[in-house]
Every structure is written in structure tokens, then in C-alpha cells.
Amino acid sequence: xDAIWIEGNRTLSGEVTVQGSKNAALPVLAATLxxxxxxxxxxxxxxxxxxxxxxxxxxxxxxVERRGKEVTVDASELTGCRILPEHAVRMRSSVILAGxxxxxxxxxxFFQPGGCVIGDRPIDMHLWALGRLGVFFSGRExxxxxxxxxxxxxxxxxxxxxxxxxxxxxxAAVGAEGTTRLTNCAREPEIGALCRFLRGxxxxxxxxxxxEIRVEGGRPLHASTFWIDADRIVAGTYLAGVLAAGGKAxxxxxxxxxxxxxxxxxxxxxxxxxxxxxxxxxxRTGRLLSPGELVTGVYPAFPTDLQSPFLAxxxxxxxxxxxxxxxxxxxxxxxxxxxxxxxxxxxxGDRAFVPGGRRLSGCRVAAGELxxxxxxxxxxxxxxxRTVVENCHFIRRGYEDIVRDLKELGADIGNETEVxxxxxxxx
Length: 427
Description:
The chain is α+β, with helices and mostly antiparallel strands and 427 residues long. 30% of the residues lie in helices and 25% in strands. A hairpin with a 2-residue loop joins β4 (63-67) and β5 (70-74).
């Protein structure tokens, strides 16, 4: 059984090191296809999405080796430019390979991507942005063929500051002729990570502020080494865990400067938060308070990926709370599972209304997507009795080992194949 058990109602205390960023690693791995040489990525998270991306790169002819948190990609020779449907279904991030393949090979075959079911995420804007750079599309039986006899720089103002579309446009522009000016781009830290990687490999990519990126295309790229920074969403999840369970924790390497909206919410909820050069300290020993309304949005607003973990913590907070979701229209799927634990969350349009003050009860629940699975784990930390979270393959898409990390913070948690301590004792 693919499940995690948690014995709840136990405060947390300890230190944990935050893993490398999933949302930075995946586009950088895609970008290695532009480099006709060897790329070394350090602090690359050991998660299933990274394994899937490495598998895709190998299918295209790249030589990929993994040793712990170091991934080496040799894309000197590519033998294909087709993303298999099984890869597209497994991981939505596969769509950003289109920009890299077009920049390198002038051709890409791909399918409507999959990943977590958290709402409508059409790829029309990806196709539109690539089309502005000279890409033509055709297709049949669900497969899209993208071709560009000549990629050329252009002015592209994105209708919405989408992270994936920004990444795809930048990757294609690096291989295009001339200057590309992208405006209304996403400003998430992962965009900056991709631009830094490309500059380190020889590309002329400049972030000019105000959501504008300028790319002088056609520069030769070369071998490089790149460090993946810590994952802000993992750090924010463990922050939510301390809010829910109480106690104190030090999150080593946590990029607190990328979490200002979440830290503001945590302070409103009664936590003591202290930022340090090498991490983040959080403590909640008093009452958990309502943060009022949280509103998700594009960076630097409250991140949609932390909406579910904070929703779990808000179930216990004194006073009514609400979350308005402005990014994905299907992100409240976890509410039904939290209600099975006694949360009494009500969904109305793009808002979740939380009455607060609830004492959650442990039971068997099922993850339906990545962040929802993490939220159920957070809920289990503060629930009375045992919680069992099924379908934990979703959680492994973005968390190296959530059981290991929460154990380091003092949680009574394990995989269901393990025997919980009470059940292993002789009577």
C-alpha cells in the first residue's frame, strides 16, 4: 500500500534541511537540451518528477547520470525530438521541452501534458508564444507537431504572466536569430534560476525588471555547472506543519526571501518567525489564529502551491478564515478529504470558507494531487489519533522524503509498510 501514517496531536521540534527546488530543476533540465555538451546540476532534488524528466532526456538521446543529488547531462548528440504520450501524461512540465527542442532542433512532437489535476491548464498560450517566434503547428490523434524552418526573435507580450509560457518562450528565444523581447513575464524565482543557468552556459539572457526579459539569440552554448537553490514550497509546507502542530523548527537553507507572503500570513496566525542567513526559524507555542483571507496570485503574492497546506492549518485556527484561489480553478479538491477529518470547509466559487476552531480526527484519506497530499500530511500532524494518507506517489513528485523530514522535526510518522511503534511492542 502506497500510504503514510501519522500519529497526530504532537508538537514539532528540531531542524531539517530543505531540499533543492522542483520548480527550478525541471526547466533547467529541459534547458540542457540546448547545450551541445555536458551540464552538471548540483543539489538536484531526488523526486519522481526529476526522474521522469531524466527519462525523457535519455529517450531523446542525451546521456544522463545521477549520483545522489548530482545529475550530469551530456546532450552533445540528440537522436529524437518526440515526447512520448506516457511521459506527457505523467508530468505537465514536459511541455517546456518544446521550447528547448525547437531552439536546438527546430522541431518538436508533444502531447497535451498531464500531471496533477488542479484545474484547467490549457497550452494555447504556449503555442501562441512559440508561434510569435516563427513556429508552425500541425497534428493528428492528439499529437502536436511544432516546426520552425527559421526561429526569429520577436516582441512578445504575454497575455498572462504564466511561469511555463515564460520558460518555453525564453528557451526557444535562446535558439532564435536576433533579439526577443518578452514582457509581462512571470517573476517567480524559478524564472530567475533558468535565466542564470542559461547565462552560465553562454546565452545572452537579461532580466530587465518589471517582468521584461531580453534575449539575444543564436549564441553558442557550452558546458557548465549549476547549483539548484532550495525549494520554497517545501519550506512553506514545513512552515505550515509547525503552524498546525505547534512547536518550533529551524528550516536550514529555506529561501525565506522568496516566502514573504507566507511569512506574513504565519505571523498573523500567531507564529514567531525569524529569518537568518542560512535558514528560517519558526515557532508557534500559543494559540493558532485566523489569518483572515489569503489570496493566491502570481509572485510575489501568496503562492498557489502553498494554498492547500495552509488550508489544513487554518482548520484549527480560532476564528473564520478564507482562501481565494486566483490561479487554478480546481485547487480546492483536498477540501473534501479535510472535511472527512472534521474540517467543515465550504467552497463557493473561487473561495474556500473555513469556520476554524475544529479539532481534526485522524482517518484514512487519499491524496489526489501533489500539494493536496502534502496538506493531508500536515492535517495528520495535528489530528487526534492516526491519519493514513493514501496515494503518496503524488507527494513523491515534489518531496524527496516527507516522512524522513518530518521525523527530523519530531513527528510520529512512517510509511504504512513500517510497523508503528505501539504495534511493535509485546504486551
